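Weekly modeling sync, notes
Attendees: S.R. (lead), two postdocs, one rotation student

Agenda item 3: backlog of single-chain predictions. S.R. asked that every request posted to the team notebook include the full sequence so nobody has to chase files. The rotation student volunteered to paste the first one in as an example of the format we agreed on. Action items at the bottom.

Example entry:
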Amino acid sequence: MSAFPVPTVHTLAELRERVAQWRARGERVGFVPTMGALHKGHLALVEEARRRADRVMVSVFVNPTQFSAGEDFDRYPRTLAADVEKLANVEADLCYAPAVEEMYPPGFSTTVAVGGPAVADLEDHFRPTHFSGVALVVAKLLNQADCDVAVFGEKDYQQLLVIKRLARDLDLRAEIVGAPTLREADGLAMSSRNIYLTAEERRIAPVLHRALTEAARRIADGEPIGHVMGEAREQVAAEGFLIDYLEARHAETLARVARRHDGPIRLLGAAKLGATRLIDNIAVESAQ
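Predicted structure, as returned to the notebook:
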């Protein structure tokens, strides 16, 4: 346990004052945006940012603009006190926890329209307003943080590509870094929403990752993509998942792929298990 608590600020003015002090000393600034309910996966992102920067700040903000009607905005876990304690263990320098009114004050009326990887018929098909909300809040946070590097997890792979495109297109200062997905011992991708799983659903949940892993191995070995992915969908559905998508896509553009040599391939899946929606992805390794 760190002997030093992590300072927490709630306003943009306070945040900018802290960052200005770091910059005046010539320090490199790292940033990890989160929605809180922190777990080991988030803390691994902080550690990655620490390797790339002198100072690391973490935002905790449950962003309303990326939730659609009927999603879990109201019940999304909010655990700021516990989050700040965890950030002390990885020696974060600052927690930024703005209120909704600080991020979206009265009269706020700007939106962000996104294309490219945001319109790949994956998450965007099932959550059509999601990436506009993500792009809006990330653009604001990166501007507010004035950071040199920002670290995002690969678990939300389509989101990561959207954010990389956003930063390039808007000439944002920050270098966007993707960090590998951290997993439980049985392969389940760590997620704040895993707390929604019942004990039986938690037992079944790793099937999604196992199916993706096996499919990636078979595709790397040269088996036809369509056949392999069809069998992966059958395997996942047989365990009680309701599949939104289980797809093989180009790893850089998310374009559809039909053959192994169509480019680097990423397998992406999203499926509901009971009331919980799980997402995961895995790279298809290059042929040796």
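Discussion: group reviewed the output briefly. Residues 2 and 51 are 18 Å apart (CA to CA).
Action items: rotation student to repeat for the remaining queue; S.R. to check formatting next week.
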